[in-house]
Amino acid sequence: MSLPAIDAWLADNLHRVVTWRREIHAEPELSKAEYATTAKVVAILAAAGLTPQILPTGTGVVCDFGPVDAPRIGLRCDLDGLPVPEQTGLPFTSRVEGVSHSCGHDAHTAILLGAGLLLAEAADRGELPFGVRLLFQAAEEVMPGGALDAIDAGAMDGLTRIFALHCDPHLAAGTVGLRAGALTSAADRVEVHLRGPGGHSSRPHLTADLVYAMGTVITGLPGILSRRVDPRSGTVMAWGAAHSGDAPNAIPQEGRLRGTVRTGDRDVWQDLEPLVRSTIGQLVAPLGVTYDLTYVRGVPPVVNDETSIAMLRRSVEAIGPAAAVDTPQSPGGEDFAWYLESVPGAMARLGVWSGVGPRCDLHAPDFDIDERALGIGVATLAGAVLGGELD
Ligand SMILES: [Zn+2]
After folding, report:
1. What residue ranges define each of the domains in the chain, with the CATH number in brackets?
2. What is the mean pLDDT of the chain?
3. How far, in Å, is the centroid of ligand 1 from the Cα of 145?
């Protein structure tokens, strides 16, 4: 482990990482429109003598360096902001109305720039045990996510392993949350559009009682899934919207339900769509209504590989003031999962809570990070590469 190289680089350059984060924070860009952020990443990498390539979609960057005859490790971050108005009061608060970096992707980008430049200097000294690919991915915040565009552009070709980290406001700055196995959940979208003849509410037997049918699906689908799927898989179905009718004495002709079904188990995720389809069909069949089901598969769960987690743990434990802590599986989704379909890898949770005051949540207008986390993020990613293969 070349820890002195990390300490020395951070002593000279951590202020640059902080500056990049603040500059990116002030100019957030929405998913698939990260043009200025892409240009900034390219400029910083090129100024360091590297050869960044913009992805064919026009946003997002890949940049390879290091030995070509060694396994190549990917380090990935995401670039996009969110349509959330910022209310942090920071001096470098968002200058873009209604858009903010409330998921911390500004920090992820600055950290990956730092880790990249640190590792590129190690490569120049012949100290790099792996080839490296930096992957600055666009559009993490939209479904199905920019990871698929990056993969289509060949971002995974030749990689043997991939790492990423994500800010976690539930963990204090100075800690890095690690978990082997499922870290995030799959989140699929379910939309049901029901139709019937409609009619007078005094004679539901002469029409099809559409609201009753909606109620049957509303309660039946989550209930049946909870009996048919192992509860230890963390599978949960919830409706977020139900719309139909106006009058108290008229049975409406149509109604719409929208919800999500989430699971932390990859195998359950594979079987979920047919199970939801057949369950809704059987619930509705006796009631005389017709329906269309739109089932939109989201991302699979992020399932962290044990060796990759061990490489991250070794890195965090070498940092000194930082501590590796266990972290639970979350019900949120993350498109980093698509990369793990082809190579092993892991995502770490980077503690960003200042330790004072309430913990703000991701995607909230007051989301902010303790910038001490930036150096720890750089060291975590760089150390995972510099440590080489585990014995
Ligand atoms: Zn995020």
Report:
1. 3-184+302-386 (3.40.630.10), 186-299 (3.30.70.360)
2. 95
3. 11
